[in-house]
Amino acid sequence: MGHRAPRGIHTRPWETGHTLLAVVLALIVTVTVVDILAPPEVHLGPFLAAAPAVTASFAGPRITAGIGAVAVLAQAVVAIVRTSLIDLNHSFQLIALILISVFVTFFAHLRERHEKELVQLRSVAEAAQQVVLRPLPHRVGPLRIASVYLAAEAEAQIGGDLYAAARTAHGTRLLIGDVRGKGLEAVGDAALLLGAFRGAAHRQADLPALVTYLEGTVSSDLDDPGATGPGGTPTEAFITAAVLDVPDDVPSVDLVNCGHPPPLLLRDGKVVALEVRHPVPPLGLTEFVGPAFTAETFAFEPGDTLLLYTDGVIEARDRAGTFFPLMDRLPNCAGLTPQALLGRLRQDLLDHAAGGNLGDDAAMVAVSRAAPARET
Fold first, then answer.
1. Averaged over 74-99, what is the pLDDT?
2. Is the pTM of this model over 0.70?
3. How confident is the model at residue 8 (pLDDT cuts 50, 70, 90)?
4. How many CA atoms lie within 13 A of 48 on its CB side?
């Protein structure tokens, strides 16, 4: 499963455009025929202005200009059949139709240019997402992994939620986090933490040393004099994070939790929250209690599934204001692969959220340990 999946099925744009264009041409033919057959005191020519105006809302300037020319030609045919081109009434209708066609063609040109700019910005955002939040591999050592990212805004590509995986000589290290705040500042903080994790996960000997390094990276960035908000006010950014180390040859997982929602372990249809006995504040705030990190070990046996998630999942509300019951939904996913598990949870989450809109970005990572291979 990739980062994000489409929230609905959309009609292809070219099919919709062709249908609307056929409707516009039918409108021109209908108005022309009816206007010719109408009594002398009835004039339907002004309705032809609707043709280029409607076309400008979905087509480019060339097609809009073409429809405008067809409408002007139809108006001229009506004038010739009913009276003449130099008739005062039809002359004013022709002049007005030409002016309207020119105006809406210019409007279509501006709209097309704006759409091109949006496409370019969206492509840049997608490229940035691939760099900042790289897709996780589906299989790492004995682990099978799946991930999903749901942005609160429909057109958003990246936000403050983050996750990453790194392979070491003895196992796999996982990170999931949530940056306080939104917007470009949150994306920058997420990129900072992800870069530090990818660079140090292979070098740090134990998990507490890795988290200490990550804390130092985040704190030093917050202490940077340039890290100020609007008006020069100091930033109050911090990052909740859970850092895990999953050995290849030991059925366990080591966890350091820095103010993040506890991972959930699914085993035999039962869900257990991996609550640490010594939690520490989020990264960027540990200076107030000292950087003493301790890894705690939990059983993670073959067949178990571990779910990492951000608070956007459990804080999603329905129309009645009820939070998403993740602990109650997870047992229904027993026996599913990580991809299938996240697919079901994602759909349940969107169905639960009011109107399918999340109040915050949401990220989930599912990890299962494969059973050891049998000797033949």
1. 86
2. no
3. very low
4. 32
- Residue 268: count of CB within 10 angstroms of its CB: 9
What are the CA-CA distances from residue 25 to residues 15, 31, 49, 254 (Å)? Answer: 16, 10, 12, 68
Contact 74, 94 (CB under 8 A): no
Query: In terms of Cα–Cα distance, which of 17, 117, 104, 114 is closest to 61?
Result: 104
Q: Is 366 exposed, middle or buried (0-12, 13-18, 19+ CB in 10 A)?
A: buried
Is the separation of the CB atoms in 365 and 308 below 8 Å?
yes
- CB count in 10 Å sphere of residue 113: 12
